[in-house]
Every structure is written in structure tokens, then in C-alpha cells.
Amino acid sequence: MKNILEVKNLNKKYADFTLKNVSFTLPTGMIMGFIGENGAGKTTTIKAILNIITDYTGEINIMGLNNKTNDQKIKENIGVVLDDMFFPEVLKAQDINQIMKSIYTSWDEELFQNYLKQFNLPLKKAIKTFSKGMRKKLEIATALAHHPQLLILDEPTSGLDPVARAEVIEIFQNFIQNEKCSILLSSHQTTDLEHIADYITFINKGQIILSATCDEILNHYAIVRCTAAEFKKIKPEDYLKYRQEKYNYELLITNKKSFKQKYTTEVIDKITLDDLMVLMIKGVK
Amino acid sequence: MEIIISNSSGVPIYEQIKDQIKAKIITGELAANFMLPSIRLLAKDLHCSVITTKNAYEELEKEGFIKSVPAKGFYVARINQELAKEEQLTKMENLISEALKIAKIHQISITEIKEMIDIINEENES
Amino acid sequence: MWGFIKKDFAMIKSNWLIVLILFILYAYLGLTDKMEISFILPFMSVVLMLSTFNYDEFNKWDAYAATLPNGRKNGVRAKYVATFLIVFLISLFTIAMALIIAYTKSTTIDYVNIFGLIGATFISTILVQSLMYPIIYMFGITKARIAIFVIVFVIAIAGGMLLKLIDFSHFTKVTAFLSHYALIIFPLIVLLLLYGSYKISLKIATKKNF
């Protein structure tokens, strides 16, 4: 199976927000970072993929199967971490183990216990006594313990300190050592994504505005900083967006190499995903 | 095998990986038929994406430094070290003649250039 | 489905101290003849099950459950089975208590009275829950509380009016028939109601957007 996840023309209307023709593809064995502002539609898209919302139009295939007609089979094979949705907090980690044992045929008790140990999480304390970081770690352990093929993670590292984040990132990279396993994760921790994501999908105001390999973005995109005089000489087809700052102009370009050959502008900076997001959203053309 | 990645150098990471493995092959540090780590393992250990290491390996394969054995992995290819060195020498020649061109335009003497090389060399070694 | 039932029981267990205190209190009141415990105890199941809905809603469990295999369906089914089990277990406990009370007071044991009373509370408890659950699934527990209040109010008024308007002397044969077969008819009606309620809840839950 070439693609583990295909989203085609996803549309969903709310009173104050619309998802419009959202389409993207996650090839098997890869990690996709899903980025965008708060309220841009990341969570809604994820909810549609998981059928947490059902009143959308469009087609979603997971593991080559339609997500609506093969709900149960798909869900046996995916692990999720969602923002703010989990087991009732009066329960304990050991309750989750007992419950999940009866829910997933492939629940791996030993693996779950190992993650708890690795994360230093207590078995016999109610979730409500956990810190935010501990909760996230428990959610991640729960998502992984039935050997899923696809992880769908909404902000899995929010609330984690840098050390815990590194730990979790390593677990994700271990997870895809099996080339059948893939991850879709939304995150505001863009530096983490720059390291581990193979693909970046960028959603803004309910629409996908960019979906490319992370290497393509980091190696070919760049930021040009120049004076107004220099800016006037640059042809509009050579940049994607620009932004007028107080002392200079900032341009988002998509082909660093050919730009360098064409223009003599001094400052061509390496791009970060944060820069990309800001310029794509705040920039104009 | 040691690989050092810089995130701030501006050189694409796949290129850094490629260049460093290539150097190790040319110097003989990585012998022919040495099995390289899988693209997934290398990605994990270097904290980079799978596509990055895949690109690096694909380019190395294209240039004939490594070969892929289906369902097994990547191995260091048998290269002619003389030839590889020759190739590097040609590369250097081109760079030096480029420098000499600039020197000629600005009337910089050979002695000055030799001094410059010594200074740069010292700086790099310290 | 058993995973979901385990979850509901684990949540109830997390309140075990309060549950235990209430049980002891009622048992004491029953033993000292201050109160009819058989009436109160099965109704505790309503409180216990509502607390599980509360916990679920607080952590958006239903949305999370929708991501588990067959999560929506099994979640609803588990609530009904758990409800039935709890009411049943409490009723058994109440019968045992009633027998102990009768024995300690060395009064003659009135089996018909004990079983009749507990059976009636059993049925009415299930009835209340059957009415409540679809409303909870529809509106969520927070809003459902108001809806439940309104519905109970409307039913009480309608029932009261009906009783006033209808002259039951015309139906003596029917009432006689009913009282004769009550042991079969009422449980049957209640089970049907429970099943209907389950089907409605299931329909609501499988289409719900979280």
C-alpha cells in the first residue's frame, strides 16, 4: 500500500468556520507534520479523519480502506492522541490497561507497562493527580500500546518540557523503524517537525496552502531581506509572498538557487517553519 | 562511523550526510562491502527525517559510492581510489584556477596567494 | 463492550467510600426502622450512573471513544448493560438486607411484600433511566438535567390529569387482569422500554458530531 492516508476534497461547514477542499496524502512509512494557526482547521480535519465528526463531504481512505465503511478495522490499527479528549480523570493507568485489554485485540500489556516505566508514570494514581506533561505521556503510551500502523496525534508534545519532548520524538522515530508505520502529527513545535517530519502540510483558514516534503521547504525555500529599492527590481514571479517591515522588505522565495543566480541581494536567509508560517499568513502578493 | 550534522550551516542536511560518507569512502575509512545503517535507523540516530537520509543514499548510489541490495540494504561500493582522488584533484584545480583568475584581475601576486593559503591553513588547523 | 463496562465500573469504584457510607447509612436506617431502605437503594443506581456520564463529559470521553474500534456503539451498549447490572446487584443486596432485618427483628418474613416492593423499585428505576439516557445522549448531561426536569414535570402533570379524567371503575376487568399478571407484564413492558431507549440512544450516538 503506497499511501497510508488519503484525504480528498474534504469539506465541512460550521457557522463561523469552513473546511474547504482539504486534500493531502501521507505515504506509508513517513511522518507528516500538520501545521497552521490555532483555529485554522487542524483539529477539525483530524476529527473528520477519525469520524469524530461525521457530517462532512469528501473521501478519506486509511490503509487503502474508506474510513466510513471500514471504521472498525481501521480503528484497530490506529493510535490517537487528541487535544483534551481522553479517559475520565478519576481513572488510573492500571484501569486503562484493564479496559484497553478488552477493547483492542492487539493490546500489548507489557509494552504499555514499559512505556509507563520509561515515562515514570504511576500505575495506581488517578489521572487527575497528573501534571499536564504526565497526562500527555499517558495519552501517548495509550496510543502506542496496541501496535497501530498509523498514529494520528493532535498536539502530542504540548505541555512537555524540552527533555520530555526529545524523549517522545525519539519514540516516534522508533515507531517508524517499521516501514509500514506512519505518523500524522499536528504541532506548534516546528523545530521538532524540522527534524523528524518527512512531509509538511500547512492549513490556513480551512484550506491547505502547502503540502510538500520538509526537505524541499528547508533546502529550496528561503527568506530574502532587502531594501525598497532592491525590492522594486525583483519580479513578482520570483517570490511567493512579501511583507513590508519598518526598515526593510521580507520576501518568501521558493527556489533559492535560481534566485541567487538572478539577483545580487545580500541577505538570503535559511528558512524555518516558523518563518514560513508567518510569511505565508501575514505576507501579501 | 561518525557523522556530524550542523543545523545552522545552511548546507542541506542530506548533502552534509552525503559528503561525509563520501569522504569516508574515499579515504578508505569505510571499506568496500561495508554495510551502511538502514535509512530509517540513520534518520533516527541523526534526528533527521527519513526522506533526508533517503536522498543522501540515493545520491551516493547515483555517484557510484554505494550500492543497494534489494531487501538487504546499502553497501559501500568497490571504488577505484586512484580515480576518486583524481576526481577530487580536478575539483580543486578548478577552484584554484578560479581563484587565480580573480588574482589576475586584481593584480595579486603568487607569493601573496601562497601566504594566504598558509594563513588559511593555520587558521583551519587551530 | 466489556472494556467499556469495566470503565463504568472502575469510575463507580473510584467513589467507593461515598457509596459504602451511603449503603451503611441506609442499612442502619432500615435496621432501626426509620426508613424503608428497599425503596431508596435501587434509586442509588441512578445517581451512580449519572456520575459516570458526568465524568465522561468532563474529559470528553465520548469523542475519544469514537476513535476506538466500535467505540460509539459499544459505549452506549455498555451504559445500558452496566445500568441493568448495577440495578440488579443493588436489588439483590436490598433483598438480602431486608431478609436480615426481618430475621434480626424475628418478625415473620413477608416474602410477597419484600419482593413486590423491591421489584417495583427495580422496575421504576429502569424506567427512569430508560427515559433519561436518550436525552443525555442527545443534549449531554449538563443540559439534559434541565430537560429531564421538564420531562418529569410534564409526565407528572399529564399523569395527574389522566387519573382525574379517567374513571377507572369502567376498567375493573382490565385492572384485575393487570394485577393478576403484573409479575409478567410490568417487567416485560420495562424491558421493551429499555430496549427501545437503547435503540434511540444508539441512533443518536452513532450520528453525533463531537
Stretches of chain C where pLDDT falls below 50 for ≥5 residues? none
Largest sheet of chain B, in brief, is: 2 strands, antiparallel
User: Helix fraction of chain B?
Assistant: 55-70%
Classify the beta-strand content of chain B into a percent band.
5-15%
Strands of the largest sheet of chain B, in order across it? 1-2
Shape of chain C: globular
Number of domains of chain B: 2
Radius of gyration of chain B: 18 Å
Element-level helix/strand string of chain B: HHHEEHH
Counting DSSP H or I runs of 4 or more residues, the number of helices of chain C is: 7
- Oligomeric state: heterotrimer
CATH topology of the largest domain in chain B: Arc Repressor Mutant, subunit A
Molecular shape of chain B: elongated
* SSE succession of chain C: HHHHHHH
CATH class of the largest domain in chain B: Mainly Alpha
Give the name of the CATH architecture of the largest domain in chain B: Orthogonal Bundle
Low-confidence stretches of chain B: none
Mean pLDDT of chain C: 82
Q: Termini of chain B, distance in Å?
A: 24 Å
Give me the number of helical elements of chain B: 5
Structural class of chain C: mainly alpha
Description of the molecule:
By secondary structure, chain A is of the alpha/beta class. Chain A contains eleven helices and 14 strands. In chain A, the strands form three sheets. Chain A has a six-stranded mixed β-sheet with strand order 6-7-8-3-9-10, with helices on both faces. A four-stranded antiparallel β-sheet of chain A has the order 2-1-4-5, covered by helices on one side. A four-stranded antiparallel β-sheet of chain A has the order 12-13-11-14. The longest helix of chain A is centred in the middle third of the chain and has 14 residues, at 162-175. The mean pLDDT of chain A is 93. Chain B is mostly helical and 126 residues long. Chain B contains five helices and two strands; from the N terminus they run αααββαα. In chain B, strands 1-2 form a two-stranded antiparallel sheet. Chain B is elongated, with a radius of gyration of 18 Å. The two termini of chain B are 24 Å apart. Chain C is mostly helical and 210 residues long. Chain C has one domain (2-159, 185-207). Chain C has helices at 2-13, 16-31, 37-58, 61-65, 71-104, 111-165, 172-207. The two termini of chain C are 21 Å apart. At the A-C interface, α2 and α3 of A face α1, α3 and α4 of C.
